[in-house]
Write a structure and sequence with these properties.
This protein has 112 residues and is mainly alpha-helical. The protein is 46% helix and 5% strand. Helix 1 runs antiparallel to helix 2 and helix 2 runs antiparallel to helix 4. The longest helix has 21 residues.
């Protein structure tokens, strides 16, 4: 019977893929530095979205504010980040990943 990956194994796999992406884009020729940095950012988002064949699992990214943040920001009249994984954004509540398809959102923000 197989066992699930440990938390440390998952962290190591994720960091290995980040390092691999950095190494790859460091060696690519024919692009400006900004284009390479944008491609690197896109690669990171693909990884987080679970669309990288070498790390085929999406990651949850959720707000995790310090306990005192809400009171501090409320006192300043500013919005605060929710404290749990059931996140409400613009009236929509999700208990799934706060983000998904980050690579698509990133691509839409880039000038063409």
């Amino acid at each position: 019977m197989t066992e699930p990956y440990t938390a440390q194994e998952v962290r190591n796999q994720f960091l290995d893929q980040l390092e691999s992406s950095v190494d790859y884009w460091d060696t690519v020729d024919g692009f400006s530095q900004k284009e390479k940095l944008e491609a690197l950012a896109f690669s990171f988002l693909v990884l987080i979205d679970g669309m990288d064949d070498s790390f085929p699992v999406a990651l949850r990214i959720v707000p995790d504010p310090a306990r005192e943040d809400r009171a501090y920001l409320e006192a300043k009249g500013e919005p605060w980040y929710p404290e749990n994984h059931a996140v409400e954004l613009h009236g929509e509540i999700t208990d799934r990943k706060l983000f998904g398809y980050l690579r698509d959102d990133w691509a839409r923000r880039r000038p063409h």
